[in-house]
Amino acid sequence: MRRNEEDERETPDPELFRRCLEGEPRAQELLYKRYFSFAMSLCMRYSRDKYEAMQIVNDSYMKVLRNIREFDSSKSFRSWYGRILINSAVDNYRRNLKHSSHLQISNEMEADEEQEPSISAELSVNEILSLFNRLPDNYRLTFNLYEIEGYSHEEIGQMLGISPSTSRSNLSRAKKMLRELYKKNFNPEKQE
Questions:
Q1: pLDDT above 60 for 116
Q2: Predicted TM-score of the model (pTM)
Q3: N or C: which end of the chain has fewer CB within 10 A?
């Protein structure tokens, strides 16, 4: 007999993990749905569009199911799953590296004095993501790993197969590019 959907939504994570280990499809579906928003929000920061983010989420979830025996239930599933998502996003970046374009920033642009634009607190999530998605893949990935996930430049270098100084350079250029994109598109002083 099938469980009531409301009861299933209340199923604690440890029980879902146990049922997933047993290969129960309904438990696997529930676990996927329970953490889908978290996974998509993380993957959107690492991808060019929703389609690519969805691919990363699905690849990651398959890794979760294959490796759920390795999950230490005394720790946070969200953290464990987050690492899998990030690693899958990095794998996706590496796999698509030959297809991506790297933007070269002129020395003139780098030499400009860094001035912080006045920031409007009224940017929507979509406006922020639209700016962020205009960064070249290598800049967006480095920015995410360093500023949001807290990885060091040495760790980023190892993950991406680049030197720590290249990671620092990518981060600096990403920030500069975001400032320029913001000034160009959303600077409140410009809109007066």
A1: no
A2: 0.74
A3: N
